[in-house]
Specification:
7 helices; binds adenosine-5'-diphosphate; 4-stranded antiparallel sheet; alpha/beta; globular; 6-stranded mixed sheet; Sugar ABC transporter ATP-binding protein; 28% strand
Length: 232
């Protein structure tokens, strides 16, 4: 079955055509790369699927159903969660507050609920191998790799059926990239569909099952990663 389909989507920003009729088909349960140079339309695709911008033309289907993603809430309601390249965490809130807002506000219910919520976040971080990050720490006090990992962990915390990772390794290196590889593999084993946005073929080889290449706002092809020769 198909998790996601974009059908000849056009997105214009004034006179700029960010997407000029892009199509994409992502199978349920796969890790699908969206690969392209700067300006190819990758972030625009992420924004469309996250409910941040609307297509000028064309349609989006999620698990076979035509959908309108007018706001982030609509995407969340359909199980689509995004870790943005430009980290979307609120700097002067804590890790736990960022994880819990806005779907499950901690303001109602008082101390007991807050403690329970904090424990849930701590447990989630532990399970993801991020137990070294204090859920009570303000985002602004974390280093960039930690912030990128929390951006990703937050999307996972919300139990996505479709997870969008936009350049998720931009601040990561070494062991943190191994961490992400383990996380993506674990989610895949749990049936989650992941869309991995990147401009680095070496990462696509490492993380993904199939890839779609975007160029100048159009898809130029989809292939199995295993079928791509080494010098590509
Ligand atoms: P990528 O993520 O692949 O680098 P983008 O989706 O960010 O590509 O951009 C695709 C094209 O759309 C680029 O030419 C970019 O300059 C343009 N673009 C993106 N966002 C906007 C915007 N808000 N206003 C005007 N042009 C935009
Ligand atoms: P059902 O469970 O009756 O198939 P759902 O609405 O739960 O109905 O699922 C619809 C489609 O989405 C099915 O093809 C199912 O395999 C797929 N699906 C459900 N949950 C997930 C998930 N967590 N990750 C990926 N695909 C899923």
């Amino acid at each position: 079955p198909e998790a996601l389909r974009l059908e000849t989507v056009v997105k214009a920003y004034g006179a700029t055509l960010a997407l000029g009729g892009a199509s994409l088909s992502v199978r349920s349960g796969e890790v699908h790369a969206l690969l392209g140079e700067n300006g190819a339309g990758k972030s625009t695709t992420v924004k469309l699927l996250s409910g941040l911008v609307r297509p000028s033309l064309g349609s989006i289907r999620i698990f076979g159903e035509p959908v309108q993603l007018a706001r982030p809430k609509d995407a969340h309601a359909l199980g689509v969660q995004t870790a943005f390249q430009e980290i979307s965490l609120v700097r002067d809130l804590t890790v736990a507050e960022n994880m819990l807002l806005p779907e499950a506000p901690v303001n109602a219910g008082g101390l007991l609920r807050r403690r329970h919520a904090l424990a849930r976040v701590a447990e989630h971080l532990e399970r993801l191998g991020l137990g070294d990050i204090d859920p009570r720490a303000e985002i602004g006090l974390l280093d960039l790799p930690q912030r990128q990992k929390i951006e990703i962990a937050r999307a996972v915390f919300r139990q996505p059926r479709i997870l969008l990772l936009d350049e998720p390794t931009s601040a990561l290196a070494g062991a943190d990239i191994d961490w992400l590889e383990g996380l993506v593999a674990g989610l895949k084993a749990g049936g989650v569909t992941t869309i991995f946005i990147s401009h680095r073929m070496v990462e696509v080889r490492r993380f993904c099952d199939r890839l779609t290449v975007l160029r100048n706002g159009k898809d130029v092809g989809t292939a199995e990663v295993a079928d791509i020769s080494d010098d590509a």
